[in-house]
Amino acid sequence: MLTKQSRMISCFVCFEKLGAFNKILFFKFTYNNSLNKKTMSLCKLCLEREANKKNTHYLTDAIIRTCLNIEGSNEREKGLYFALDNTNPFIDFNFQRLDELTLETTIGRKPTEEEIENAKSIPFSVDYVFCSDCENLFTDIETPFIQNILPHFRQADLSGLKIVSEADVVTIRNFFHIQLYRSAVCEDILAFSPEFKEKLRHSILQKNGDTSIPLSVTHLQTLGGNAIYTENYIGFTDDKNPFIVFMNDFVIQVYENEDAIKFLPFHGLNEQETFVSAININEESFAFKIFDNAERKVFLNTVIVNEKVKKTIQYYRDMFDMFWRKLFGVDAPVLQKERYIQSLINGDDNNLIKYSKQQVFEFTVAYMAKLFNVTK
Q1: What is the separation of C-alpha 73 from the centre of its chain, rounded to a whole number of angstroms?
Q2: Within 10 Å of residue 191's Cβ, how many Cβ atoms?
Q3: How far apart are alpha carbons 24 and 17 in whole angstroms?
Q4: Are strands 286-291 and 215-220 parallel, antiparallel or unpaired?
Q5: Which secondary structure element, helix H or strand E, spans residue 364, and what is its range?
Q6: Angle at 252 between CA 63 and CA 256, to 5 degrees
Q7: Other C-beta atoms within 10 Å of 124: how many?
Q8: 360 CB contacts (<8 Å, ≥6 apart)?
Q9: How many CB atoms lie within 10 A of CB 375?
Q10: Residue pLDDT tens, the chain, 376 long
Q11: Do 222 and 249 form a contact (C-beta atoms < 8 A)?
Q12: What is the torsion angle, in degrees rounded to the nearest 10, for the CA atoms of residue 307, residue 308, residue 311 and residue 312?
């Protein structure tokens, strides 16, 4: 288990223009590019047939699409994203079918050539990892959940509810098991043990909704129309037991076995007194934990502030110290560092995570030149 200080979230984030400023709306994990190179390999589910299927979404497209797309559009491949990794404070934008002028208006700067090249990728999909037959199995599992279970959350009034129980355990289990298994196959950050991954694989192939797997799902009630779904997140953390997957308005937590269950607060997602009761294991009905719309906003804001913004601020403090040491041989005075940070923030902490490397370098050079009255 990584310490809190070393935790990493690797994901995509989308910006939407709101009035005169850009606001962080959601973050989404990039897929493993190495899996998109065609090779004569076997399907990662059945392990029998050739992996011949292109464009397999390992997080169900019908669930995540409204979060991925600007204004919550249900159209495929319409959105603006960028890679966000807590080991790297800089952002690499990615986008789909948006003209350069729209991009510049939205993100507040021109996209780089590398970002334009990366834009050709489709988020959360892989080529030649699964076979056509297993893709059909995925569809057979996804369809009843989307048609029969999802409306109970997205089209229902859940006001005042903290728990919603559903009787169709097998449909629900099968659906979330494929999200977990496909993601673990496609994303290194979701580091399941081989034994647990194999257990998931057999459960999916048998479509038995194995209830011995400890599983907790929180639904984030998202009110105000499709555009509000873009405030939600999609991605993975490197926590283990629970492993955590953000999937638009659903947050999945899974443990490899009952003995691995332990408390992880994760910015208010779990509470010490109630987290065990929210875990489904050997259940007769499946319990979803519910966050109302206000709780959802507080939770998501806490995640992004603690997992990214605070760490980014510290990175810039350290970088300013480095500049200062090169000039004077000592760390910068605290007051000077804070003035530098406030200049970067410019009234909104979230501004810190939209800068490119070149922008920060140029800003810092200009700031130091102004500070010491250096002129060209």
Answers
A1: 18
A2: 12
A3: 9
A4: parallel
A5: helix 357-371
A6: 135
A7: 26
A8: 90, 316, 319, 344
A9: 5
A10: 333 333 444 444 443 333 222 323 333 333 344 454 555 699 999 999 999 999 899 999 999 888 876 555 555 444 444 334 455 555 444 444 444 554 454 445 565 666 555 555 557 889 999 999 999 999 999 999 999 999 999 999 999 999 999 999 999 999 999 999 999 999 888 999 999 999 999 999 999 999 999 999 999 999 999 888 888 888 888 899 999 999 999 999 999 999 999 999 999 999 999 999 999 999 999 999 999 999 999 999 888 777 777 777 888 888 888 889 988 899 999 999 999 999 988 877 767 766 777 788 888 888 888 888 765 5
A11: yes
A12: 180
| Segment holding 345, helix H or strand E | helix 334-345
The token pair at 101 is 């002028």
* CA proximity to 58, closest of 115, 140, 116, 142: 142
**What percent helix, strand, coil does the chain show, rounded to 5?**
45, 20, 35
Give bridge partners of residue 216 from the DSSP assignment. 253
Q: Which residues contact 297 (CB under 8 A, 6 or more apart)?
A: 231
Q: Report strand pairing: 215-220 vs 163-166.
A: unpaired
Residue 86: partners with Cβ closer than 8 Å, 6 or more residues away? 7, 8, 9, 10, 307, 308, 311
DSSP collapsed to 3 states, 182-233: HHHHHCCCCCCCHHHHHHHHHHHHHCCCCCCCCEEEEEECCCCCHHHHHHCE
Question: Hey, what amino acid is at 208?
Answer: N
Residue 251: is it exposed, middle or buried by C-beta count within 10 angstroms (0-12/13-18/19+)? buried
Q: What dihedral do alpha carbons 289, 290, 294, 298 form, nearest 10°?
A: 20
d(CA 219, CA 291): 6
CA–CA dist 58, 354 (Å, integer): 27
Task: Look up tokens 């005042």; give the residue.
Answer: 160
